[in-house]
């Protein structure tokens, strides 16, 4: 059974994916979770494991009836499209309401690092001050799971999930720049999230 804390993803994802046998997707995901459970070092890690296992299972069912390119594209739409507008709009609203939008990004990044990603990911923070925040992912649990299960080609789509909140930050409106110069999924040795305060927000 899919844990309740993962249904925020599983329900929209499976609806968008529209697999011919959703029960088989869940059964395959359960097998992956059992096989990889030893890698989940804490409660957030177990949530990440389920999130990733469902993704892999959905992709594998696509591969039964589609070629590789078609499967990756269909997976990408199901993985990203149901969430993009909601995440972008929620982030934009929070930035609009803040007198210091870079603090919104900083605090949300720290919250997710601690409570969503947990100890299965390794982070460095070379900058954390009034001028901005830099979070560097040195070790990625998504990558380890996808490689272990033989589907590293999905990692780029996992990386692109972050574009929703990144796109919400408007340099002129919020006075903050968000950059991601490198990620594991795009061939980099790490993932950099750089949030820089440029000016006071336009509504200040």
UniProtKB/TrEMBL annotation:
InterPro entries: ATC_hydrolase-like. It holds the Pfam family ATC_hydrolase. GO terms for molecular function: hydrolase activity. Keywords: Hydrolase. The keyword Hydrolase applies. It comes from the Bacteria. The keyword Hydrolase applies. This is L-2-amino-thiazoline-4-carboxylic acid hydrolase. It comes from Tenggerimyces flavus. The lineage of its organism: Bacteria, Bacillati, Actinomycetota, Actinomycetes, Propionibacteriales.
């Amino acid at each position: 059974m899919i844990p309740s804390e993962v249904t925020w993803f599983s329900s929209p994802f499976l609806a968008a994916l529209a697999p011919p046998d959703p029960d088989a997707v869940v059964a395959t995901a359960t097998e992956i979770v059992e096989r990889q459970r030893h890698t989940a070092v804490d409660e957030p890690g177990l949530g990440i494991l389920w999130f990733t296992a469902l993704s892999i299972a959905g992709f594998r069912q696509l591969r039964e009836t589609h070629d590789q390119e078609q499967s990756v594209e269909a997976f990408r739409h199901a993985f990203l499209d149901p969430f993009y507008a909601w995440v972008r709009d929620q982030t934009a609203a929070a930035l609009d309401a803040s007198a210091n939008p870079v603090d919104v990004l900083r605090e949300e990044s720290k919250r997710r690092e601690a409570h969503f990603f947990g100890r299965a990911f390794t982070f460095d923070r070379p900058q954390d001050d009034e001028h901005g925040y830099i979070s560097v992912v040195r070790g990625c649990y998504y990558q380890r799971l996808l490689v272990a299960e033989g589907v590293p080609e999905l990692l780029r789509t996992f990386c692109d999930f972050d574009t929703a909140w990144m796109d919400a930050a408007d340099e002129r409106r919020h006075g903050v720049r968000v950059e991601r110069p490198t990620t594991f999924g795009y061939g980099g040795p790490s993932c950099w999230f750089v949030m820089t305060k440029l000016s006071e927000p336009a509504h200040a």
